[in-house]
Amino acid sequence: MADKSSSALVAKQTLISVPVGLLCVQHGKTNVQEHTESGSLKLYKYYGENKIKDVEELKKYDIVLTTYGTFGIESYERRCPLLKIEWWRVILDEADVIKNANAKQKYGSL
What we know:
- By secondary structure, the protein is of the alpha/beta class.
- 22% of the residues lie in helices and 15% in strands.
- The chain has helices at 20-23, 31-34, 55-58, 68-74, 95-99; strands at 14-18, 43-45, 63-67, 89-92.
- The protein has a 4-stranded parallel sheet with strand order 2-3-1-4.
- α3 (55-58) links the parallel β2 (43-45) and β3.
- The model is unreliable at 1-8 (pLDDT under 50).
């Protein structure tokens, strides 16, 4: 993904923070994958114990998906790679909260 109005290629990484239930959907397919052409975007799920911690490696992905909890906990760490990337766009997906009034998600850590 690059800005064609500029002579230099500018990466446009997007960070999407979602409730954990939306990250771990059936058959490993996310909403992003369902609505984009197969192979058109590099997607990475930043979640679990074996996350990529190298900033340069994470920059290779067009979209990085994470959870509110993961981002909240790691944002307090000085070495958190998510805080070292200049994201083109950050999306906070609250669809689960909107659909489920009984959701117990806490937003204080954001």
